[in-house]
Amino acid sequence: MTGNVKDSSIDFDAVIIGAGFSGLYMLHILREAGFTSRVFEAGENVGGVWYWNRYPGLRCDSESIYFNYTFSEKLYKGWTWSSRYPEQPEILSYLNYVADTLDLRKDITFNTWVESAHYDEENNKWVIKTKEGECVTARLFITGVGCLSAANIPTIKGIESYDGEIYHTSRWPHKQIDFKGKRVGVIGTGSSGIQVIPIIAQESKHLTVFQRTPQYTLPANNHLLDPEYLQNIMDNFENFRNEVRHKTNGGFITKPLNRSALEDTPEQRERIYENYWNKGGPHFLSGSYNDLSTNPEANETAAEFVKNKILEIVKDHKIAEKLIPTFPIGAKRIVIDTGYYETYNRVNVSLIDTKKEQIIEITPKGVSTTEREYEIDVLVLATGYDAMTGPLLKIDIRGKSDISLKEKWDGGANLKTYLGLANSGFPNMFTITGPQSPSVLGTVPIFIEQHVEWIAECINFLRENEIVEIEATKEAEEVWSKHAHEVASKFFYAEHDSWYTGANIEGKPKGILVYRGGFQLYRKKCDEVVNNGYEGFQLTYRKNLSNNNSLIH
Ligand code: N01
To answer: How many CB atoms lie within 10 A of CB 319?
Structure first.
C-alpha cells in the first residue's frame, strides 16, 4: 500500500472523511484549487463501500457507463467497463485507477477511524480526532461516509454463541469463502441477499434462506458491453455528459411513458411490461408508465405482472407463493437480479418464511425456529444497513454549544438539514450525499459530483470574500425539510417500512431520509441558493470578528 500520510502538518483547510467516490473527488477538486486537505479512511485502501462490500455476486444496480466520474473527459476515456452492470471488483479497480491517475493517495491516511469532530467556536475550526490517536484541525469538515456503509447487525438471541463461520454481506472477508460441501444459511432477502443467494446455491451442499419479507426483483439482463456502443459514447462525450448531468435523474436516461398504466388495455399493458422486463434493470418501473410509484391501482397492474412471473418461473407453487410480495412494487427499493427466482427450483435450496416460522435464536449449531433447528456451517447475514444517518451518527460530531448531531436530530426523530448538505449549528461542515438529498435515488457518482462541485464552489466563495464561517439557518432548514416531506408524501415508499425511512432499524425513528423531488429540481434549487448569495446561510466575514481569525489558505 502506498500513501498512508502522517506528515507533520496538523492544520488543514479541509478534512474529509472517506476515500470512496465522494472523498476522492472532493480531495482532488480542493487540491486543484490550492486548498490543503487530508482524507481519513478506515479501510486500508481506497473504495469506501466498494472496498468493504465484496460478497460473491455483488454488482451495482446502476449501469456502468454512468457509474463513474464525468468531470474529466480524459479520466472517463481512460477506463473501459466490461459489462452493463459493473461487478464489485471492477468498481474497486476503477477507484484505484482514479486514485493512481490523480495521485490522490499522498493526501489520504488509511486504516484510520475518525472518532470525533468538534467545532471550536473561538477559533472557528474543527478539531478532528482519530481512534489511532491523531488530532488535527481544519477550517472545513466534509463527510464522504456513504449512504449505505453502517452495517445492520441483527440482535438475534444467541448470535454470539454460534460456532460456525458468520459473515455480514457488507463486511465480507478479503478472501474467498469456500462454500463447497457446506450447509449455508442466509438471513435477509434485500439486494444483497438476492445477489448472493444464487451464487451460494450453486456452490454449497445445501442453502437455507430465511426470508422475513419477500421482495420484488427484476432480471438485470446483464451482458458484455458492445465496443461500438462504448466508442459512440466516447466520440460524443460532451453530449453524453451534458445529458447525464443536466437532463436525467443522474443517469436514469429512460424517461417514463407519458401516460398512466390505467389508460392502456390489459393486453397493451402486458406487452409494455413484458418489453421492460426483457430489457432488464430498474427500467420496468422508472421507464414504463408514469404513475406506478404514486397511483395504487396502476401500481397493482405492475405488481400483478411480477407476481405472475414468479408463479411462472418457480415450479413449486407453495414456494412461489412464499416469494410473492404483498406491498406495492417500488415501496421498497427495487432489486435487480441474475437467476434469483430460478434458484428456488434447485433441490439443494429451501426457503423459510420467518413470519410464519419465526427465528427464535441462533444456537452454537445453527438457526432455531418455532418449528426446528437448522444445522448451518456458514451463516450469512444479508441484513442491510443503518442507512443515511447511521454512518454520520457513528461519529461524535459536535457543533456550536457542544451540541452533537445526534442531539440535534434527536436520534433521527427530528431530522432537519439544509439541502441534505448542511446543518444549522454546524458551521463549515458539509455532508456529501447527506440525508434529505437525492443521494441513492439515481446514479450515486453523478449525485456526488454535483455535491462536490457545489461545495468546492462554496469554499472558493468563502476564500474570495474573506468569510470565516458559513452556517445554514434554522429557517432555511425548516423550509427544506418541510419541502422534502411534502414531495416524498406522494410516493408509496414514504409510508412503507424500509431503509429509505429508517424503519429497518430497531428503535430508529421513522422519517424521510432521501429527497424525492428529482435530481434536476434538486440541482436547480442548489444553484438558486448560490445565485442568491448563499441564501439560507449565515455568513461571518473576517472583518466583523474581533479575533481576526485566519482565513482558508
Ligand atoms: O439490505 P436491505 P441490502 N431478522 O435492507 C432482512 C444497496 N445495495 O443490503 O424486509 C431477519 O434491503 C430484511 O427483512 P425486512 C441497495 O440500494 C445495492 O440487501 O426488513 N431478517 C431484508 O430482507 C439496497 O437497497 C446493491 O423484513 C432481517 C434484508 O434483511 C441497499 O443497498 C447490492 C433482519 C435486508 O435488506 C440495501 O440492501 C447490495 C432480522 N433481524 C446493496 N434484519 C446493488 O447495487 C433485516 N432483515 C445491486
So the answer is: 17
Q: Which residues have a Cβ under 8 Å from the Cβ of 286 and sit 6 or more positions away? A: 249, 252, 254, 256
Question: 151-215+332-384, superfamily in CATH?
Answer: FAD/NAD(P)-binding domain (3.50.50.60)
Judged on CB neighbours under 10 Å (0-12, 13-18, 19+), 82 is exposed
Does residue 144's CB lie within 6 angstroms of at least one atom of ligand 1?
no
State in Å, rounded, how far the first CA of the chain is from the last one.
30
Which of 10-14, 479-483, 544-548 bottoms out in mean pLDDT, i.e. has the lowest? 544-548
According to DSSP, the residues that pair with 166 across neighbouring strands are 379
- Which one-letter DSSP state was computed for residue 256? P
Is the shortest distance between the CB of 193 and ligand 1 below 6 Å? yes
| C-alpha 383 to ligand 1 mean position (Å) | 5
pLDDT on residue 552 = 63
**Annotated domain spans of the chain:** 12-150+387-544, 151-215+332-384
pTM: 0.95
Judge if the beta carbon of residue 154 lies within 6 A of ligand 1.
yes
Residue 151 has pLDDT above 90, yes or no: yes
C-alpha cell at 314: 418457480
Q: Which atom of ligand 1 is nearest to the CA of 62?
A: 45
Question: Which residue lies with its CA nearest to atom 21 of ligand 1?
Answer: 188
Q: For a ligand 1 pocket test, name from 50, 168, 191, 380 the mutation site with the most ligand atoms within 8 angstroms of its C-beta.
A: 191
Nearest to 209 by CA among 177, 187, 228, 190: 187
**What is d(CA 114, CA 38) in angstroms, rounded to the nearest whole number?**
12
Residue with the larger pLDDT of the pair 544 and 474: 474
Q: Is the pLDDT of residue 104 over 80?
A: yes
Its CATH class, for the domain covering 12-150+387-544, is alpha beta
C-alpha cell at 223: 451482458
Residue 542's pLDDT is 87
Over 90: is that where the pLDDT of 550 sits? no
For residue 210, the number of C-alpha atoms closer than 13 Å in the C-beta half-sphere is: 26
- What pLDDT is recorded for position 9? 62
Classified as helix, coil or strand, 379 is strand
What are the phi and psi torsion angles at 114 (to 5°)?
A: -75, 120
Predicted confidence (pLDDT) at residue 6 exceeds the cutoff of 60: no
Quickly tell me which residue has 487540491 as its cell.
Answer: 31
Is the shortest distance between the CB of 499 and ligand 1 below 6 Å? Answer: yes
Q: Quick check: do 12-150+387-544 and 151-215+332-384 share a fold?
A: yes
pLDDT of 96 > 60? The answer is: yes
pLDDT attached to residue 553:
60
Tens digit of pLDDT for each residue in 60-73? 999 999 999 999 99
CA dihedral 150, 152, 158, 159 (to 10 degrees): -60
pLDDT of 106 above 60: yes
